[in-house]
Amino acid sequence: MAADIKQLEKKYVGKEVEFRLLRFAPDKDRAPYFQSFRIKLSQGMTVLDALMRIKETQDPTLSYRKSCRMGICGSCAMQVNGFPKLTCQTQVTELNTDKPIEVRPLANFPILRDLVPDLRNFLKAHESIKPYVIREDAEELDHPTGEFYQSPKELEKYLQFAYCIKCGACLAACPTNATDHEFLGPQALAAAYRYVADSRDQGLEQRLEAVDGPNGIFRCHYAGACSEACPKGVDPSLGIQLLKREILKYRVGAAHKKPAPLAVTPKGLKRREGIPLPPEKTVGQ
Ligand code: SF4
To answer: Does 77 fall in a domain?
Structure first.
């Protein structure tokens, strides 16, 4: 393995590579255009590193988003050679360096400037599905008497969907989003399933209002491109299909989500004075 990496470095370090970057300054350009830059590759260089090098050494006006540089924040997602990718996780040596490497802002989003997409509608869609646990027992929320129990099996039902970093790559890959900009999109729909599948949640009815409209969940044709594009291993198309099932179950009246029980007080547990103990019996039994 170490030998392979050494071979790659020998082949690529110092090689001059062309990057074709989409440029667009709405205050002065009538339309987006491509501009080419040539840089020498250095060891372990990612596409984001290349953009940073270009900005530092050739054009300080180049605009793009980045933050963590370790695949966690999701802000550096862009189209690299036509595919949505986290640029901080894409090694230049993974690409064909004999041809120009093309970098554009994420597809299916308006462009704010150069490589920066406008994510406002995307974030609004996420907000619209109420991305938080909804409970009916307001009294318990205001004056908690214990924790809500969740078994490892219950956690498994939604865990992979909780790994979403809201990078937008799935929307850039989605053919429905490409033709219907009002479509809620795979991220918001998978996030809705993440909460519906959470045993502590009681917000199914409220979320249905958000996801089951004319531009909602049933516009998804199950192309599966979102799941291929996701850099975090989330499978939004699976979440969407499972959410469709929950909706159909709800419509035929077969689903009756029970509230998650409060954790049973372990025998002999004593709390600090003034804080009431949770009941010995689980609520909802
Ligand atoms: S589901 Fe995956 S691709 Fe879509 S926003 Fe979340 S992390 Fe990004």
So the answer is: yes
Name the stretches of the chain with pLDDT < 50: 271-278, 280-285
Residues 180 and 138 in one domain: yes
pLDDT at 281: 45
Index of the ligand 1 atom closest to the CA of residue 161 = 1
189 lines ligand 1 (CB under 6 A): no
Predicted structure pTM score: 0.86
Query: Do 81 and 161 belong together in one domain?
Result: no
Range of the domain at 112: 12-117
Q: Other C-beta atoms within 10 Å of 83: how many?
A: 14
pLDDT for residue 46: 98
**What CATH number should be reported for the domain holding residue 174?**
1.10.1060.10
Q: Is the CB of 166 under 6 A from ligand 1?
A: yes
Residue nearest to ligand 1 atom 2, measured at CA: 230
SS3 (DSSP) at 176 = helix
183 and 86, same structural domain?
no
Q: Is residue 136 part of a domain?
A: yes
Give a yes or no: residue 272 inside a domain.
no
Q: pLDDT at position 114, please?
A: 98
pLDDT in tens, 125-135: 999 999 999 99
Is 274 within the bounds of a domain?
Answer: no
125 vs 188: CA distance, rounded Å: 6
pLDDT at position 267, please? 55
- What pLDDT is recorded for position 22? 98
What per-residue confidence (pLDDT) applies to 283?
A: 40
Contact present, 21 and 4 (Cβ < 8 Å): no
> 127-136 burial by CB neighbour count: b if 16+ within 10 A, else e?
ebbbeeebbe
Q: Which atom of ligand 1 is nearest to the CA of 190?
A: 1
Ligand 1 pocket, mutate which of 79, 164, 237, 243 (most atoms under 8 A from CB): 164
Query: Does the CB atom of residue 39 touch ligand 1 within 6 A?
Result: no
Q: Best mutation site among 127, 232, 235, 237 for ligand 1, i.e. most ligand atoms within 8 A of its Cβ?
A: 232
Residues 143, 214: one domain? Answer: yes
Secondary structure letter of residue 159 according to DSSP: H
54 lines ligand 1 (CB under 6 A): no
